[in-house]
Amino acid sequence: MLKSLMTVSGFTLLSRITGFLRDMLTSYYFGAGTLGDTWVAAFRFPNLFRRVLGEGAFNSAFVPLYSGKLAEEGKGAAFDFASRILVILSLLLSVLCVVSYIFMAPITKALTTGFDAEKLALATDLSRITVSYLFFICLVAALSGVLNSHKKFAAPAFSYVSLNLVFLMGLMGVVPFVDGLQNKVSVMAWCLPIGGFVQLVIVLLSAWRTGIKFVPKVPKLDSDTIKLGLLMGPGLVSAGIQQLNLLVGQWVASFQDGGMSAIFYSDRINQLPLGLIGIAFGVVLLPDITQKLRKKQNKEAQLSLQTGMTMAMLIALPAMLGMMVLAEPIIYGIFKAGEFTAEQAQVAGYALFAFALGSPAYVMSKVLQPAYFAREDTKTPMKFTLVSAVVNSILCGIAFLVLGKGGQLSTGCALATSVAGWVNVSLLLGGLKKSGFLKLSGEFWKRLGKMLVASMVMGAIVWCGAYMLDDILHSDSRWVRIPVLAAVGGAGVVVYFIVAHLTKAMTFAELKAGFKKSS
């Protein structure tokens, strides 16, 4: 498992690095004000549906069914099932893109209530360009699910790197030579569907090289399709509610000028541990647990889940402390340049601190959900995320009433999202314990306590380093700030793993053994 995890995490890290480069250039050209907000709004719309429809509802239902057919009926039946479903998905996505394009003005207005007329018009125009990305990325997500079921993780993970490479080519090769900020941001919008097409080509080539055969099938309403639809229903609601938590925060923050940008850039940093561990484990665990359950290997499936939880917290806890201690220096170091000011960095830094409080919860929820989806239970996570959405909405409303349109409104919204995340993960844990699928040993809790101690030691070291190097971390040159920031963070990582080894939270020998078992 660890080898597969590192394949996904490695490419995810590369994707995050190229994504940060993309965001650094984006913030340089557009800042975190009016123009930055319109780009965030246009970029967010297709990504919202990607996470809800593609990576959320569809894969949570499709991957267990495909993996089950692969384990029980063989490749032929699995390929036939995938072919039929991909045709249906393509038709649905085509209709969705056309309808969204036609009604983009009211959709954008609903998602960005705080925008004035001029800001709304630009966001609508940009969203009409970016909406076609939805078609490509949902097909990419579906094909990635097929490849993951065959334990092919590299190409799907690399496809997200390719998207950022397209953006970087646009930002460095086209944007500098285009006149007018609105024309520059339009170039960014066109990079999204072009990048989506490249992603689709990459996963299709990988499927072909793997020997996966897709033969177009005339769509029909058979038992498999009906079962997929029934499983997708609750999954669609569940994934939608998860995104609603962040969406509500951005919607409320849109009343603060630059608030959406503050949420966006801080969440980009916050998504790093989620992508490296949470999403990576979700990708690896879902087909793994599904196939073990279909083979009646229940104990092995439960062990996979507990191993996933242990490894996830090994990274998530220090990530939380690190982001809290270095919140403002991280935002300042990476994004402060051009149109992105020191004041905007401070506002986004506060939001990052608030998001970091919920980082372990975001990660753990991605690890726990496959235990439900693998058993074809999409209704229970839906109920839990509904509760968390209510909590998030109430807290965002309170933040608006208390903070108004002030500079800390984005922080209040980020904190609400973190609290909602902890509510969700608490319910997921309770549900698995109640069903008897999850029985955490005393050893797990001992390790967790030791990891927390190691994280606190690391946090203290990082804080001291940041305090002593504060002037350099706030240097005018980004290329001075970033290496020093990396050095401070790197020193913290080294300290953490040494303390974790000494306390036996996770020894180097155990990590090495884990990789050998997974190879």
TrEMBL record:
Q: Which domain of life is it from?
A: Bacteria
Q: Which UniProt keywords apply?
A: Cell membrane, Cell shape, Cell wall biogenesis/degradation, Membrane, Peptidoglycan synthesis, Transmembrane, Transmembrane helix, Transport
Q: Where are the transmembrane segments?
A: 85-106, 126-146, 153-175, 187-208, 228-252, 272-290, 311-335, 347-364, 384-403, 409-430, 451-469, 481-502
Question: According to Swiss-Prot or TrEMBL, what is its membrane topology?
Answer: Multi-pass membrane protein
Q: Please give the PANTHER family that the UniProt record associates with this protein.
A: LIPID II FLIPPASE MURJ (PTHR47019)
Family matches, as HAMAP family: MurJ_MviN
What's the family? Belongs to the MurJ/MviN family.
Function field: Involved in peptidoglycan biosynthesis. Transports lipid-linked peptidoglycan precursors from the inner to the outer leaflet of the cytoplasmic membrane.
Q: What is this protein called?
A: Probable lipid II flippase MurJ
Q: Which gene is annotated as encoding this protein in its UniProt record?
A: murJ
